[in-house]
Amino acid sequence: MIQLSSVNKWYGQFHVLKDINLTVTKGEKIVICGPSGSGKSTLIRCINRLEEHQKGQIVVAGNELTDDLKNIELVRKEVGMCFQHFNLFPHLTVLENCTLAPIWVKKMPQKEAEALAMNYLERVKIPDQADKYPGQLSGGQQQRVAIARSLCMNPQIMLFDEPTSALDPEMVREVLDVMVELAHEGMTMICVTHEMGFARQVADRVIFMDRGEIIEENNPHDFFDNPQSDRTQLFLSQIL
Ligand code: ADP
Ligand code: MG
Questions:
Q1: In whole angstroms, what is the distance from residue 7 CA to residue 10 CA?
Q2: pTM above the 0.80 mark?
Q3: Structural domain boundaries enclosing 52
């Protein structure tokens, strides 16, 4: 589903991703963790070409990411993304946020798009908020809208970049519950998160990044209970 081979990226002189190799198969769930500034966001943003890499190869759902706009479009069709700060359109209702892309990108008739959106809003347990504006919702509700909105495009892959780190503690669970459900439905997922309970519950692999490199990767059990690298041990001792 996703294949990164010797991927390198620089911001000017700064070498932000160093020889990243990563293969994600269909239905796999990957959790990425690591210190702030280690390149986690950059890495997942490269997977749907919100950032471009300068060296190496990224292939997503059979399409290589290059300057070819057609391929970029094909990849973005297959990849949904949720960010820390929801990025909902404030001037559109919850329902309109969800139907916008299906109507304008997929040319779906409005009624059909609304039915689809309501279906996903039910799955994230907020169908009753459909006519409200994002600003009228709690952070946890807004993040669930953001997830529903992504799912309306029927992606094969979902990328999450610290989806719960801007939330008040009492709202973290409701968002994680939606993500766990999605994982159990077989979605291919890459999640940048420091929610280690979530990682233990759903991850097939946990990847630890530091200073632009993948330092260690393992199944959650061995990753948490028997970390190999000093840097992983130090990081875990700081967050657990
Ligand atoms: P993480 O998500 O692990 O915190 P990021 O991928 O956001 O890390 O950032 C990795 C490094 O790249 C940081 O040092 C950050 O300051 C730098 N960086 C991120 N985005 C840019 C950018 N657009 N231009 C220059 N430097 C950037
Ligand atoms: Mg980040």
A1: 10
A2: yes
A3: 2-238
Q: Which ligand does the CA of 160 lie closest to?
A: 2
Site of tokens 């290059």 = 66
Q: Which two tokens stand for residue 131?
A: 């006519």
**Ligand 1 neighbour 36 (Cβ under 6 A):** yes
Residues 6 or more apart whose CB falls under 8 angstroms from that of 38 comprise 209, 210, 211, 212
Q: Choose the residue to mutate in 14, 15, 16, 38 for probing ligand 1, maximizing ligand atoms within 8 Å of C-beta.
A: 16
Residue range 138-156: mean pLDDT, rounded: 97
Residue positions counted in the chain: 240
Ligand 1 close to Cβ of residue 188 (< 6 A)? no
Q: Is 14 exposed, middle or buried (0-12, 13-18, 19+ CB in 10 A)?
A: exposed
Mean pLDDT within 78-105: 96
Q: How much distance in Å is there from the Cα of 34 to the middle of ligand 2?
A: 9
Ligand nearest the Cα of residue 12 is 1
- The b/e string for 162-200 (b: 16+ C-beta within 10 A; e otherwise) is bbbeebeeebbbbbbebbbebbeeebbbbbbbbbbebbb
Judged against a pLDDT cut of 90, whether residue 223 lies above it is answered with: yes
Query: Are 46 and 58 within 8 A, CB to CB?
Result: yes
Residue 234 has a pLDDT of 96
What is the tally of helices (H) and strands (E) in the chain?
A: 9, 10
CB distance 80 to 57 below 8 Å: no
Q: Kindly tell me if the per-residue pLDDT of 240 is higher than 90.
A: no
The domain that holds 113 is classified in CATH as 3.40.50.300
Q: How many domains does the chain have?
A: 1
